Amino acid sequence: MEGVYAIASIIFIVLIIIGIIVLYMRSAREIPILMYHSISQSSAKLSVSPQLFEQHLKLLHSQGYTTISLSDLYRHYSAGELLPIKPIILTFDDAYEDNFTVALPLLKSFGMKGTLFVITDWVGKHNDWENYPGKPVLNTMTWEQIRKWKEAGMEVGSHTADHLFLSNLDKDEIKHQLGHSKKVIEENLGENVNFLCYPYGNFDYRVKKFAVQAKYKLALAIDDKVPLWRTDLFAMRRILISSRHNELRFAAKVSKWNHILVSLKTIKRRMI
């Protein structure tokens, strides 16, 4: 009996090693997509100070990363277009005004790209869709600022109409959140909107189906429900960046090993 346990233990260890190797090989192919929100000194939960954001950009530059757009990423997966050696994507949720006044000048100074995700019913307003104790009042960008963001060589996508938990909605409201926001951005920018960002990273199979029907080409999530072993263009993983990520922690976040760590935590969570 001890021999059987020994063999079972060896098989278990071998499987773990194989799993880690497979995750590492996948991580080597995965392009980091970073998720920022407000770039300010505010007390917002997910804000990053201008000084820290600049440190992040300096680190990416010094380590040889090249920022690419989601359009570049889509062409890579759909048509095999080659990417730089160390590609990375910077995204900004909610279209806070400081993304325009603070983040954009810093991005331009480093020759980097960024993708902005707009909540269309909250353009040019305060962040009243957020509701938590001590929430600071922040302004969002106006359509004029969003157009100037685009004219600066940056990218714009949809963050839906109202920033709701999409999987909690009925099908008609999901379609409205995805379709209306896409239409409004296209009318204001005069070009197709191909990319979607799920509010709170929340989606289900219905949301993905309606995103395809709305003619999005790619959609971003966070970790929940993102496939571990394959790439799903309508469930792309992102890496949350906040004020907690000093230079050392930020470097760890964008490393290939972070993908393995996150994947292992996800496996554990899904097994419970």
Question: What can you see in these coordinates?
Answer:
Helices cover 46% and strands 11% of the residues. It has one domain (32-255): Glycoside hydrolase/deacetylase (TIM Barrel, Alpha-Beta Barrel), CATH 3.20.20.370. α1 packs across α9, α2 (50-62) runs parallel beside α4 (97-109) and α6 runs parallel beside α7 (205-213). It has 272 residues and is an alpha/beta fold. The chain is globular. The model has no long low-confidence stretch (mean pLDDT 90).
How many helical stretches?
9
Secondary-structure content class: alpha/beta
CATH topology: TIM Barrel
Q: Give the CATH superfamily.
A: Glycoside hydrolase/deacetylase
Blueprint (SSEs and pairs):
Elements: H1 2-29, E1 33-36, H2 50-62, E2 66-67, H3 70-79, E3 87-93, H4 97-109, E4 115-118, H5 143-151, E5 155-158, H6 171-189, E6 195-197, H7 205-213, E7 218-220, E8 239-240, H8 247-253, H9 256-271
Parallel strand pairs: 1-3, 1-8, 2-3, 3-4, 4-5, 6-7
